[in-house]
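Quick one:
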Amino acid sequence: MRMPNNFFVVSVLLMSFLAPQHVSAQTAEQRGLEIAQEADKRGNGFNDFRAEMEMILKNRQGDESRRFIRVMGLEVDGDGDKGLSIFDEPADVRGTAMLTYSHKVDTDDQWLYLPALKRVKRIASRNKSGPYMGSEFAYEDLGSQEVEKYTYKYLRDEVFQGMDSFVIERDPVDKYSGYTRQVTWIDKAEYRPLKTDFYDRKNTLLKTLTFIGYKKYLENHWRPSEMFMENHQTGKTTRIIWKNYRFRTGLKDNDFQVNDLKRAR
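Output:
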């Protein structure tokens, strides 16, 4: 008796479902890298931006000081982004400017112009773990966070602030980094960083950075309204409040030149 053709098709499908499945499982390292790459991909395509930020520094006793800074950033194809920060207030730091050329693999290039000394100072690789202008942010925190600068490991899924999140560990490749590792919570819906714990060279929890109040720009680019860094070892904190984001403003490579830092306004 000849069976209809559709019987043969169904039989093949059943056999394929019943046969042993040889699917190679991802390692924790592969999964962690995949999550980091997706987060990085979603952040691309902004071209350039301008913004203002208020930096609020607070010591263990609760004493505050405030700084007002203009920030510019330029996306660079095939390498890390470029960034320029110019201090407007208070008067004792007015005109201070920092320029960063981030790199995917090589150590970032950073220069700081100090008006009181009237000279541009290059930040040495060994000093990038030091505090930026008295804040709880290190110089290495301020470059673009390129995927290639770390190795990764997926740790777990977890709900953070009501959002389903991935928790991954990333370990800096740079031997001069001030951190042994960082643990980051990334929301599953939009792949935005929500929180990062920083561990010092003794592998002790040093700082926690929390991202607050995300807003969406250019249809798919998310930026936090605030970033709060808490130093668990000193009791000091730094809060950054972002204001007036503008994207695709026409900035070019010529706007990020070392020789122009003394004239940055």
